[in-house]
Structures are given as structure tokens and as C-alpha cells.
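User: Second chain of the day. Same drill as before.
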Amino acid sequence: MSGPSDQPHSPGRVTIGDVARLAGVSIPTVSKAINGRYGVAPATLKRVLSVVDELGYETSIVASSLRRQRTNVLGILVAEFEPFSVELLKGASTASSEKGYELLAYSSLSRGKSAIGWERRSLSRLAGTLIDGAIIVTPTVLAPIESIPVVMIDPHTGQEGSATINSDSFGGAQIATQHLIDLGHRNIAHIRGRGDLISARLREDGYRDALLRAGLQPRPENVRDGGYQFRQSAQATQELLTLTDRPTAIFAANDMSALGAMSAAQELGLTVPRDLSIVGFDDIPEARSSTPPLTTLVQPLQEIGVRAVHMLSDLLEGEDPPQPTYLSARLVVRGSTAPPPDLY
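Assistant: Same format as last time:
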């Protein structure tokens, strides 16, 4: 008798007919086997499942979920793959492996689609069939999900549920701004993040609070939109640096914005940090390799990914939802900050 892999099968997406043909059984028998129904001899069941496992990862996952009601796969859903989410993925991948899970990274947001509700669309495709639970990075608005456990990282509107993880955006922004004040800066600008994210608003609030505590009045013209994007932040910086009384320092809401600010300053012939000090937030790898290296608030992104997997694993094991988790951000001083020019 030939084994499951001894017979050719047609290229392309595997069908139940392919499984039946290679296993030498009928389609109804395959259906019974992958659904765990009675009436399939042990040897036949073993042969069918062996073929299923050989014919493709997705088919194997679906079949396993039908047999065991679990796929042993965790999903991590992101709006887009960019430095912030990639660092989270590194931590989540390590933790998933240690916990005995496979990890499926998924992004469904593409040009022309509305950003609002992207996570609902993603979950509708994956929940209950391909993944046992999901980690959602920066969800927009999330209706209660009852089909699978969900952990949220940095929700747009704050704590929409107890299974959430965030960094201390307000406290981190205070630390960043205070660092510039301690260096002697008094004219400090802020490039803020996306208006739809509570973390961005908290970072602006922390910046303002630090100024007020130092007896400095925030200047409306010193706050510009960067949208957490390099190019938009570079444009915002050019506008700031053409002011009559231009700022001597900038606190940017994330590292990509800070790197955009650094690029714009250098294009205008300014030297960082001699002419302009810049502080970011996140500590993505690009922050350490920039010229000069970026002073920033270290957001423990990989640790957040690890914590999210542990939290989701606990939920899958039936434990009660945890309280919201906040992780502290710490300042790392590198080469992009110095006293203002008049104090050199």
C-alpha cells in the first residue's frame, strides 16, 4: 500500500478532494476524520490526518481546530508593519515559542480601506478558525469579542477592557521635557502624535505639565502635528525652525517623528545637538543608529509583547482577566541633546 506522499497532487490550494484522493478514501470519510466523528477506522483516521498535515499549514490548522477545538496558534493583529509593531512582534514571538504556541502576525489595513474598525475585519477572518486568541496593537474601536480572548496594546481610546497593556506616556513625556529643561532649554517645542491615539494626547499633556511645573508657559505655535510619521514630522520641524523665535529643543512624540525632525534640521544647515536638541519616545533600533544617536524614552516594546502573550495565555487557561498593565518608560541620554547654544 502506498504512503500518503507517494501520489502526486495538483498544485494550488489544497481541497478536501485532494486529501481524499491521496489518502485513498472518500470525501465523506475525510470530513468525518477531520471533524472527529464516529465511523472511521483508527488506521484510516491516522492516514487521513497524516495527509492533512503534509498538504499545507493552513489546512492542518483548520483540521486541528475542528478536531481539538484549539489551533494552538495566537494571532497578533497590527494595522501596519512599522518599527513599533515589529519590536512588539519580536517579544511576542519569543514568548509564544516558550509557551508552546505558534504565532500568526496579520495586517489587513491597506490603501483605500478605512482605518476605523480594521481589527474587527481581521478578527472576523481569523477568530475561532485559525487562532485561539488575539493580541491587537493600537485597536481603534473594539466591540466586545466573545468568540476568543483578546489582549489590547495601546488602545486608541484608552482602557476599553481590563486585558490591556500600555506604557506610561504621560510620565515619560514629563521626563523627556524635564531633561531638556534641566539642560537649560526654555523654548521647547513638541511634535505631537496621532490625534486618535490616547497615548499621543497623554504625551502632549505630559509635555505641557512639565513646562508649567518649571514656570514656563506653553506656546501654541510650538506644538505641531507629526502624526507619528517621519515626513509629516520633518515638515512640522521646518515650520518650527522658521519661526522668528525658533525653539532650541524639540520633544517628539515618537522616534520616527524625532528622526524626521533631525533630518529637517540638518537639511536647514543646523547641527544636532549644537543648534537644536531633540528627544524621541520608543527606542526603536533606528534611534540607536542615527547620527547623532537619539536621546529617547525607552518604551519596553519587546517586554510589552512578552507580557501580552503571557496575559493571553492566562486567559486561554481560564484565568480571570487581569487589571490594566502600565509599564514605565525610562530616559536614555545619547548624542541628540545638549545645552542650548547660548549656554555653550
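The CA atoms of residues 56 and 87 lie 29 Å apart.

User: Great, on to the next one.
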